[in-house]
């Protein structure tokens, strides 16, 4: 499954990083503590977080995560959007909370 498939099936808003929509998805990681994500997330994971500062893109790029999903329609900082576009790491926005996102992704087999 690719990031663009998740966007379509969950009706997510693509905020930035459109060049990365063909990235392969291999699992989900949900956490807001960057250091914890760096030590536990895996390559290809979808990362669900309420963090919106540019360091999330740096972590996602370092770990080669497939995308970042920000729940509950939280607005993303402009500098984070710019960094996401530079790194081709898609940032997606969802209207539901993290738990609901995890349930939906699980039901899709992610």
Strand order of the largest sheet: 1-5-4-3-2
- Unreliable runs: none
* Largest pleated sheet: 5 strands, mixed
| Radius of gyration from CA coordinates | 12 Å
**Proportion of strand residues:** 15-25%
Oligomer: single chain
Model description:
- It is a single chain.
- The radius of gyration is 12 Å and the shape is globular.
- The protein has a 5-stranded mixed sheet, with helices on both faces.
- It is of the alpha/beta class and 110 residues long.
Q: Can you give me a brief rundown of this structure?
A:
The protein is built from five helices and five strands. The protein has helices at residues 3-10, 34-40, 55-63, 78-87, 98-107, and strands spanning 13-16, 28-30, 46-48, 67-70, 91-93.
Characteristic key phrases:
110 residues; alpha/beta
Strand and helix map with partners:
Layout: H1 3-10, E1 13-16, E2 28-30, H2 34-40, E3 46-48, H3 55-63, E4 67-70, H4 78-87, E5 91-93, H5 98-107
Parallel strand pairs: 2-3, 3-4, 4-5
Antiparallel strand pairs: 1-5
Helix pairs in contact: 3-4
């Amino acid at each position: 499954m690719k990031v663009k498939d998740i966007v379509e099936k969950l009706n997510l808003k693509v905020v930035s990083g459109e060049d990365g929509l063909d990235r392969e998805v291999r699992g989900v990681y949900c956490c807001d503590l960057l250091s914890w994500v760096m030590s536990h997330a895996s390559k290809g994971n979808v990362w669900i977080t309420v963090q919106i500062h540019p360091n999330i893109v740096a972590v996602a790029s370092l770990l080669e995560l497939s995308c970042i999903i920000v729940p509950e329609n939280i607005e993303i900082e402009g500098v984070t959007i710019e960094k996401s576009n530079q790194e081709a790491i898609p940032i997606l926005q969802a209207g539901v909370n993290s738990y609901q996102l995890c349930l939906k992704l699980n039901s899709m087999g992610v």
